Amino acid sequence: MSSSGLKAKHQRLVLVVFALVALVGAGLLAAYALSRQASYFYVPSDLRANPPEAGRAVRLGGMVEKGSIHKQADGVTIDFLVTDGKAQVPVRFSGITPDLFVEGSGVVAEGRLEGQTFVADNLLAKHDEKYVPREMKDMSISQAKQVVAQTR
Amino acid sequence: MHGFANPARFLRLARWLLPTLLVPGFVLAFGSLAWGLFMVPPDHLMGDTVRILFMHVPCVWLGMAGWSTIAISSIVELVWRHPLAGIAARAAAVPGAVFTALGLITGSIWGRPTWGTWWVWDGRLTSFLVLLFLYLGYIALADAAQRDAAAGGSTSRVTAIFGLVGAINIPIINRSVVWWNSLHQPPSITLGRSTIDGTYLWPLLIGALGFSLIFGGVVIARMRMLLADIQTEARLRRKAMG
């Protein structure tokens, strides 16, 4: 029993490992193949390289260029530039912006390309992966490190 | 390892393990929540909503750790036929599903003020919702398989196979924010690196440890319950036959 039992156990182990490798491989390949379709938004350089048909609803994501937000005379319409570091797209939006919508921060705009301008129906603010307390945001990195070192 | 296949031995260990996990677990979890809710300063952009971090992150971590437990136990069940492995996998399913649901709820509540929406169908949120559905399917399947076995049917391995196949979603959830543009931000904590300031990171790590201990305790308690169930069923069946 012991030798044949061990053999069966090894066979099962090999089988499970093979199944697992095949499964993970298939899943990763499928996920990788989806990499374009499953993206939630276009970045500006995508939009410039392969522009969608005019009037088709798409999403545009990127950084709000520093110093680019301009309020129109009507008080509710704003113009700003969205950038990914390589290309820029001018965006126009009328409405209330989310709290995290600030210059230099991430944004996802839902709307359509009209000529060169992206007209947004809705704005979503994107948070970055950094979490920093309020009193430390204006410090330089070296100052902040010092404060952290002192409080530890 | 097969020493613990003896349920009596496992039950003796469980009796000691249960308070050892739950007591420090509750102390650390509630300590971290109190720390996170009342003591940390507001975030420079999000303000006070950053406090949801201390509930959201432990919940999603345990949602994923729960399925990892199921997957590992399923391998042990399939390869070594360890009698407790299937029970451990089934015991992890309900708490895993609860934490997954809590992670989705807290994330949605957090998304409304910060992103400006309750829900979007981006890669991270969608793959995490799929995880909840996998849990619900697993729980239903495990329940059906156990009833079948109790009725004298053959012990089915289909639950373990489902647990193994479902594990494919775990790396997809983990990589979703890296592979695809998503509204959810990329990972803040990776191996050996964190972009979360220490003021938030320490209570978060303590909370994650505390909730994990609670999770472990709940799994042990549910294993005891499932073993008792199986014993009762067997006794009833013997009585009915005798």
Automatic annotation (TrEMBL), chain A:
Record's keyword annotation contains Phosphoprotein: no
Gene3D superfamilies named in the record: Nucleic acid-binding proteins
Intervals, Cytoplasmic compartment: 1-12
Any one of the GO BP annotations: protein-heme linkage
Residues given in the record as heme binding sites: 127, 131
Membrane-side (Extracellular) residue stretches: 34-152
Gene Ontology CC: plasma membrane
Keyword Membrane on entry: yes
Keyword entries, A-Z: Cell membrane, Cytochrome c-type biogenesis, Heme, Iron, Membrane, Metal-binding, Signal-anchor, Transmembrane, Transmembrane helix
Subcellular location as annotated: Cell membrane; Membrane
MF annotations from Gene Ontology: heme binding; metal ion binding
Topological category with respect to the lipid bilayer: Single-pass type II membrane protein
UniProt cross-references to SUPFAM superfamilies, sorted A to Z: Heme chaperone CcmE
PANTHER family tied to this protein: CYTOCHROME C-TYPE BIOGENESIS PROTEIN CCME HOMOLOG, MITOCHONDRIAL (PTHR34128)
Protein's job: Heme chaperone required for the biogenesis of c-type cytochromes. Transiently binds heme delivered by CcmC and transfers the heme to apo-cytochromes in a process facilitated by CcmF and CcmH.
Similarity-based family: Belongs to the CcmE/CycJ family.
Name used for this protein in its record: Cytochrome c-type biogenesis protein CcmE
Organism: Novosphingobium nitrogenifigens DSM 19370
GN (gene name): ccmE
From TrEMBL, chain B:
Membrane topology field: Multi-pass membrane protein
Spans through the membrane: 21-40, 60-80, 87-105, 125-146, 158-180, 200-221
Cited Pfam families: Cytochrom_C_asm
GO MF annotation, one: heme transmembrane transporter activity
A single BP term in Gene Ontology: cytochrome complex assembly
Keyword terms: Cell inner membrane, Cell membrane, Cytochrome c-type biogenesis, Membrane, Transmembrane, Transmembrane helix, Transport
Coiled-coil zones: none
Cellular component GO terms, alphabetical: plasma membrane
Localisation: Cell inner membrane; Membrane
Keyword Acetylation (UniProt): no
Domain Cytochrome c assembly protein: 22-184
PANTHER family associated with the record: CYTOCHROME B_B6 PROTEIN-RELATED, HEME EXPORTER PROTEIN C
Protein family: Belongs to the CcmC/CycZ/HelC family.
Role summary: Required for the export of heme to the periplasm for the biogenesis of c-type cytochromes.
Protein name: Heme exporter protein C
Organism the protein comes from: Novosphingobium nitrogenifigens DSM 19370
Protein encoded by which gene: ccmC
